[in-house]
Design brief:
Order of helices and strands: HHHHHHHHHHHHH
Strand content: under 5%
Helix content: over 70%
Distance between the termini: 24 Å
Number of helices: 13
Largest sheet: none
Oligomer: single chain
């Protein structure tokens, strides 16, 4: 059932990407406020059930107090922010690697397969398209975004077009190789996802393209998996998911907005929002991935 739902989700998303690519205003760089709104609602909500996963993890260790989870999760997020302030280049580089792996794995997590020792590398290569595409199609804008995050990549040899095309080819190949033995429907799903990403990054500016991918493909797909875990009836599961997701989503959104307001005293609004989006996502991604890893490892 979930494979069928995700197939139609990919089909709708692919056509949606083709449709919105025709609107010139979406190429405007002044849409960061809209992007922030989408990320604070649809985007971060897909991780808002981490407290439920934390409860399962604590149960495995026979720990009853949920305060331990909340304190630990918050401290990891705060630690990531502090490292970003002290060592922005190092942390951003690590974050890009971790994010590429996370996108590659989570976007295909609903497709059960026998795990191979090389799958981790294939997940990284698959997810790297999210980072490579904006560099390939909108290099100057993407470099400026990295510079606003205190990371100058203009002199790095791997951002030359020949290397970017090679990496994108590897990303495409890994997408197919991961599920080589799967049926045509699954292959079509993966191809639609890949070309949706290319369409977004070719026609739209990097921030808008990333936001649409992150909110409407990555986050929706992860949320669909959570909905099916809550209840096999998608309508009932959706209502339960929304009810459970609202509290942590609202808390996180408020913290984002407060931080953006504070940073706007030192930077222009667009720069402040870009910092909040990417540093905020990094601070949430690391504990989120660590939680998934610990739950998967100890759950077995």
């Amino acid at each position: 059932m979930i494979k069928k739902v995700n197939f139609y989700h990919s089909l709708v998303f692919f056509n949606f990407c083709i449709f919105i690519s025709a609107f010139a205003f979406l190429r405007n760089n002044n849409l960061v406020i809209l992007c922030l709104f989408l990320i604070l609602t649809l985007g971060i909500s897909h991780g808002s059930l981490d407290n439920n996963k934390g409860k399962k993890l604590l149960k495995l260790f026979d720990i009853k107090s949920m305060s331990i989870f909340y304190i630990g999760y918050s401290l990891i997020s705060l630690f990531i922010i502090l490292i970003w302030i002290a060592l922005p280049k190092t942390l951003l580089f690590i974050f890009l690697i971790v994010a590429a792996y996370h996108f590659g794995k989570e976007d295909t997590a609903f497709l059960q397969k026998e795990k191979k020792f090389y799958d981790e590398l294939l997940y990284f290569l698959k997810g790297s398209a999210v980072i490579i595409s904006p560099l390939l199609f909108h290099k100057i804008e993407t470099v400026l975004i990295f510079q606003s995050l205190n990371f100058n990549i203009s002199g790095i040899i791997f951002i030359k077009d020949i290397y970017l095309y090679a990496l994108l080819t590897l990303s495409f190949s890994s997408t197919l190789f991961l599920f080589l033995k799967k049926n045509i429907q699954i292959k079509s799903l993966l191809l639609m996802d890949f070309f949706s990403l290319l369409i977004l990054n070719y026609f739209l500016n990097p921030i808008t393209a990333f936001t649409i991918y992150f909110c409407f493909l990555h986050s929706v797909r992860h949320s669909l998996s959570l909905i099916f875990q809550l209840n096999r009836n998608i309508k009932k599961g959706f209502l339960i998911f929304v009810k459970k997701a609202i509290p942590l989503t609202m808390v996180t959104a408020i913290l984002y907005l407060l931080t953006a307001t504070y940073l706007s005293n030192s930077y222009d609004l667009n720069s402040a929002i870009i910092r909040v989006i990417f540093i905020g996502l990094a601070s949430l991604t690391f504990p989120h991935i660590l939680l998934e890893y610990l739950l998967e490892k100890n759950g077995k």
